[in-house]
Design a protein that fits this description.
- With 219 residues, the protein is α/β, with parallel strands linked by helices.
- Helix content is 34%, strand content 21%.
- It is built from 9 helices and 7 strands; from the N terminus they run αβαββαβααβαβαβαα.
- It has helices at residues 3-7, 26-35, 80-83, 98-102, 104-114, 138-147, 163-180, 196-202, 213-216, and strands at 12-19, 50-57, 60-67, 88-94, 120-126, 151-154, 192-194.
- Strands 1, 2, 3, 4, 5, 6 and 7 form a 7-stranded mixed sheet that branches.
- α6 (138-147) links the parallel β5 (120-126) and β6.
- The chain is globular and about 50 Å long.
- The two termini are 27 Å apart.
- Bound molecules: guanosine-5'-diphosphate and magnesium ion (MG).
- Magnesium ion is lined by residues 26-27, 68, 71.
Protein backbone atom coordinates (compact mmCIF):
# COMPACT_ATOMS: atom_id res chain seq x y z
CA UNK A 1 0.00 0.00 0.00
CA UNK A 2 1.30 3.48 -0.81
CA UNK A 3 2.13 5.97 1.95
CA UNK A 4 -0.89 8.11 1.08
CA UNK A 5 -3.27 5.17 1.09
CA UNK A 6 -1.84 4.05 4.44
CA UNK A 7 -2.27 7.46 6.01
CA UNK A 8 -5.87 7.70 4.80
CA UNK A 9 -6.89 4.37 6.30
CA UNK A 10 -9.11 4.84 9.30
CA UNK A 11 -11.98 3.10 11.04
CA UNK A 12 -14.14 6.12 11.76
CA UNK A 13 -14.40 9.77 10.84
CA UNK A 14 -15.79 12.16 13.46
CA UNK A 15 -16.82 15.74 12.83
CA UNK A 16 -15.61 18.00 15.68
CA UNK A 17 -16.23 21.65 16.52
CA UNK A 18 -14.29 24.15 18.58
CA UNK A 19 -16.58 26.65 20.32
CA UNK A 20 -16.25 29.38 22.95
CA UNK A 21 -15.72 33.16 23.11
CA UNK A 22 -13.33 34.95 20.76
CA UNK A 23 -9.80 35.18 22.16
CA UNK A 24 -9.94 32.01 24.28
CA UNK A 25 -7.41 30.27 22.01
CA UNK A 26 -9.59 28.03 19.84
CA UNK A 27 -7.58 28.58 16.66
CA UNK A 28 -4.33 28.06 18.58
CA UNK A 29 -5.63 24.80 20.07
CA UNK A 30 -6.54 23.53 16.62
CA UNK A 31 -3.18 24.60 15.24
CA UNK A 32 -1.27 23.00 18.13
CA UNK A 33 -3.19 19.74 17.70
CA UNK A 34 -2.65 19.55 13.92
CA UNK A 35 0.84 21.06 13.62
CA UNK A 36 2.29 20.36 17.08
CA UNK A 37 3.32 23.97 17.46
CA UNK A 38 2.06 27.27 18.81
CA UNK A 39 0.55 29.62 16.28
CA UNK A 40 2.16 32.91 17.27
CA UNK A 41 0.64 36.28 16.53
CA UNK A 42 3.17 37.11 13.81
CA UNK A 43 1.58 34.36 11.76
CA UNK A 44 -1.31 36.23 10.19
CA UNK A 45 -2.47 33.42 7.96
CA UNK A 46 -6.04 33.69 9.22
CA UNK A 47 -8.69 31.36 8.00
CA UNK A 48 -7.37 28.00 9.13
CA UNK A 49 -11.02 27.16 9.45
CA UNK A 50 -10.61 23.49 9.19
CA UNK A 51 -8.12 20.78 10.03
CA UNK A 52 -7.99 17.03 10.11
CA UNK A 53 -5.81 14.44 11.77
CA UNK A 54 -5.90 10.70 12.29
CA UNK A 55 -5.42 9.53 15.87
CA UNK A 56 -5.17 6.07 17.39
CA UNK A 57 -7.69 5.51 20.15
CA UNK A 58 -7.37 2.13 21.85
CA UNK A 59 -6.30 0.43 18.62
CA UNK A 60 -8.91 2.12 16.42
CA UNK A 61 -7.90 4.75 13.87
CA UNK A 62 -10.14 7.77 14.06
CA UNK A 63 -9.97 10.64 11.61
CA UNK A 64 -11.01 13.88 13.28
CA UNK A 65 -12.37 16.54 10.95
CA UNK A 66 -12.29 19.71 13.03
CA UNK A 67 -14.05 22.97 12.27
CA UNK A 68 -12.97 26.30 13.70
CA UNK A 69 -15.46 29.18 13.94
CA UNK A 70 -13.28 31.31 11.65
CA UNK A 71 -14.11 34.41 13.65
CA UNK A 72 -17.89 34.07 13.44
CA UNK A 73 -18.09 34.11 17.25
CA UNK A 74 -16.87 37.72 17.31
CA UNK A 75 -20.21 38.74 15.87
CA UNK A 76 -22.23 36.25 17.93
CA UNK A 77 -23.35 34.73 14.69
CA UNK A 78 -22.20 31.16 14.92
CA UNK A 79 -24.63 29.58 12.56
CA UNK A 80 -26.86 26.57 12.74
CA UNK A 81 -25.02 25.06 9.78
CA UNK A 82 -21.75 25.21 11.73
CA UNK A 83 -23.22 22.98 14.43
CA UNK A 84 -24.99 20.57 12.13
CA UNK A 85 -23.94 16.94 12.40
CA UNK A 86 -21.09 17.33 14.90
CA UNK A 87 -20.14 14.28 16.93
CA UNK A 88 -17.89 16.10 19.37
CA UNK A 89 -16.92 19.57 20.53
CA UNK A 90 -14.25 21.35 22.52
CA UNK A 91 -15.92 24.08 24.55
CA UNK A 92 -13.17 26.56 25.36
CA UNK A 93 -12.83 29.33 27.96
CA UNK A 94 -9.74 31.22 29.10
CA UNK A 95 -8.74 30.55 32.75
CA UNK A 96 -7.56 34.20 32.99
CA UNK A 97 -10.93 35.61 31.93
CA UNK A 98 -14.06 35.14 34.03
CA UNK A 99 -16.08 36.72 31.24
CA UNK A 100 -15.27 33.82 28.91
CA UNK A 101 -16.19 31.37 31.69
CA UNK A 102 -19.51 33.13 32.33
CA UNK A 103 -20.36 32.75 28.64
CA UNK A 104 -20.17 28.94 28.81
CA UNK A 105 -23.86 28.50 29.64
CA UNK A 106 -24.87 30.30 26.44
CA UNK A 107 -22.50 28.20 24.34
CA UNK A 108 -23.84 25.02 25.92
CA UNK A 109 -27.44 25.99 25.26
CA UNK A 110 -26.64 26.60 21.58
CA UNK A 111 -24.64 23.41 21.22
CA UNK A 112 -27.34 21.28 22.80
CA UNK A 113 -30.02 22.95 20.69
CA UNK A 114 -28.27 23.20 17.32
CA UNK A 115 -25.88 20.23 17.28
CA UNK A 116 -26.68 16.55 17.42
CA UNK A 117 -28.57 15.61 20.62
CA UNK A 118 -25.84 13.17 21.55
CA UNK A 119 -22.89 15.51 20.92
CA UNK A 120 -19.99 14.73 23.29
CA UNK A 121 -18.47 17.90 24.75
CA UNK A 122 -15.19 18.42 26.56
CA UNK A 123 -14.71 21.64 28.49
CA UNK A 124 -11.22 23.12 28.04
CA UNK A 125 -9.89 25.76 30.42
CA UNK A 126 -7.20 27.12 28.11
CA UNK A 127 -4.09 29.26 28.82
CA UNK A 128 -3.14 27.00 31.73
CA UNK A 129 0.39 28.40 31.36
CA UNK A 130 -0.87 31.78 32.65
CA UNK A 131 -1.60 30.48 36.14
CA UNK A 132 -0.55 33.72 37.96
CA UNK A 133 -3.32 35.58 36.09
CA UNK A 134 -5.95 32.95 36.77
CA UNK A 135 -9.55 34.17 37.39
CA UNK A 136 -11.27 30.77 37.39
CA UNK A 137 -10.19 27.95 39.72
CA UNK A 138 -9.84 24.37 38.59
CA UNK A 139 -12.31 23.27 41.25
CA UNK A 140 -15.02 25.69 40.21
CA UNK A 141 -14.80 24.67 36.57
CA UNK A 142 -14.74 20.97 37.38
CA UNK A 143 -17.98 21.39 39.37
CA UNK A 144 -19.56 23.18 36.41
CA UNK A 145 -18.41 20.36 34.13
CA UNK A 146 -19.84 17.72 36.44
CA UNK A 147 -23.19 19.49 36.74
CA UNK A 148 -23.44 19.75 32.96
CA UNK A 149 -22.15 16.28 32.13
CA UNK A 150 -19.03 17.54 30.38
CA UNK A 151 -15.54 16.12 30.46
CA UNK A 152 -12.99 18.67 31.63
CA UNK A 153 -9.30 19.49 31.18
CA UNK A 154 -7.14 22.56 31.56
CA UNK A 155 -5.05 23.02 28.42
CA UNK A 156 -2.31 25.22 27.03
CA UNK A 157 -2.14 25.81 23.31
CA UNK A 158 1.17 27.57 24.07
CA UNK A 159 3.01 24.64 25.71
CA UNK A 160 0.84 21.95 24.16
CA UNK A 161 -0.14 20.57 27.56
CA UNK A 162 -3.32 18.44 27.39
CA UNK A 163 -4.13 19.55 23.84
CA UNK A 164 -3.89 16.13 22.20
CA UNK A 165 -5.51 14.63 25.34
CA UNK A 166 -8.60 16.83 24.94
CA UNK A 167 -9.26 15.60 21.41
CA UNK A 168 -8.40 11.99 22.28
CA UNK A 169 -10.61 11.88 25.39
CA UNK A 170 -13.55 13.26 23.46
CA UNK A 171 -13.00 10.74 20.63
CA UNK A 172 -12.66 7.89 23.14
CA UNK A 173 -16.01 8.75 24.71
CA UNK A 174 -17.68 8.77 21.28
CA UNK A 175 -16.13 5.37 20.46
CA UNK A 176 -17.36 3.98 23.79
CA UNK A 177 -20.86 5.20 22.97
CA UNK A 178 -20.72 3.54 19.56
CA UNK A 179 -19.53 0.29 21.10
CA UNK A 180 -22.23 0.33 23.78
CA UNK A 181 -24.90 1.03 21.14
CA UNK A 182 -25.79 4.38 22.71
CA UNK A 183 -24.69 6.11 19.49
CA UNK A 184 -25.63 4.89 16.05
CA UNK A 185 -23.15 5.99 13.35
CA UNK A 186 -25.74 5.27 10.67
CA UNK A 187 -28.21 7.77 12.04
CA UNK A 188 -28.53 10.98 10.02
CA UNK A 189 -26.53 13.84 11.50
CA UNK A 190 -24.54 11.67 13.89
CA UNK A 191 -21.32 13.32 12.70
CA UNK A 192 -19.77 9.90 12.27
CA UNK A 193 -18.76 8.02 9.14
CA UNK A 194 -17.19 4.65 8.70
CA UNK A 195 -13.73 4.73 7.15
CA UNK A 196 -12.38 2.27 4.60
CA UNK A 197 -10.71 0.14 7.25
CA UNK A 198 -13.99 -0.42 9.07
CA UNK A 199 -15.86 -1.05 5.82
CA UNK A 200 -13.38 -3.73 4.81
CA UNK A 201 -14.18 -5.58 8.03
CA UNK A 202 -17.92 -5.11 7.59
CA UNK A 203 -18.04 -6.24 3.99
CA UNK A 204 -18.60 -9.85 3.19
CA UNK A 205 -16.79 -11.06 0.02
CA UNK A 206 -20.12 -11.09 -1.83
CA UNK A 207 -20.68 -7.42 -1.07
CA UNK A 208 -17.21 -6.33 -2.16
CA UNK A 209 -18.71 -3.88 -4.68
CA UNK A 210 -20.70 -1.92 -2.08
CA UNK A 211 -19.95 1.80 -2.25
CA UNK A 212 -18.11 3.33 0.68
CA UNK A 213 -19.96 5.66 3.02
CA UNK A 214 -18.05 8.59 1.53
CA UNK A 215 -18.95 7.68 -2.04
CA UNK A 216 -22.66 7.55 -1.29
CA UNK A 217 -22.37 10.80 0.67
CA UNK A 218 -24.34 9.59 3.68
CA UNK A 219 -23.08 11.92 6.38
P1 LIG B 1 -9.72 32.36 19.24
O1 LIG B 1 -10.30 33.71 18.96
O2 LIG B 1 -10.53 31.64 20.28
O3 LIG B 1 -9.50 31.54 18.02
O4 LIG B 1 -8.31 32.63 19.93
P2 LIG B 1 -6.85 32.58 19.25
O5 LIG B 1 -6.43 31.18 19.03
O6 LIG B 1 -6.80 33.50 18.10
O7 LIG B 1 -5.96 33.16 20.46
C1 LIG B 1 -6.24 34.40 21.05
C2 LIG B 1 -5.00 34.94 21.75
O8 LIG B 1 -4.64 34.12 22.86
C3 LIG B 1 -3.77 34.99 20.86
O9 LIG B 1 -3.06 36.17 21.17
C4 LIG B 1 -2.97 33.77 21.26
O10 LIG B 1 -1.60 33.96 21.06
C5 LIG B 1 -3.32 33.64 22.74
N1 LIG B 1 -3.31 32.23 23.23
C6 LIG B 1 -4.02 31.21 22.73
N2 LIG B 1 -3.83 30.09 23.44
C7 LIG B 1 -2.96 30.41 24.44
C8 LIG B 1 -2.38 29.68 25.53
O11 LIG B 1 -2.62 28.48 25.75
N3 LIG B 1 -1.55 30.38 26.36
C9 LIG B 1 -1.26 31.69 26.17
N4 LIG B 1 -0.42 32.27 27.04
N5 LIG B 1 -1.80 32.41 25.16
C10 LIG B 1 -2.64 31.78 24.30
MG1 LIG C 1 -10.06 31.86 16.05
Amino acid sequence: MSQTAMSETYDFLFKFLVIGNAGTGKSCLLHQFIENKFKDDSNHTIGVEFGSKIINVGGKYVKLQIWDTAGQERFRSVTRSYYRGAAGALLVYDITSRETYNALTNWLTDARMLASQSIVIILCGNKKDLDPDREVTFLEASRFAQENELMFLETSALTGENVEEAFVQCARKILNKIESGELDPERMGSGIQYGDAALRQLRSPRRAQAPSAQECGCW
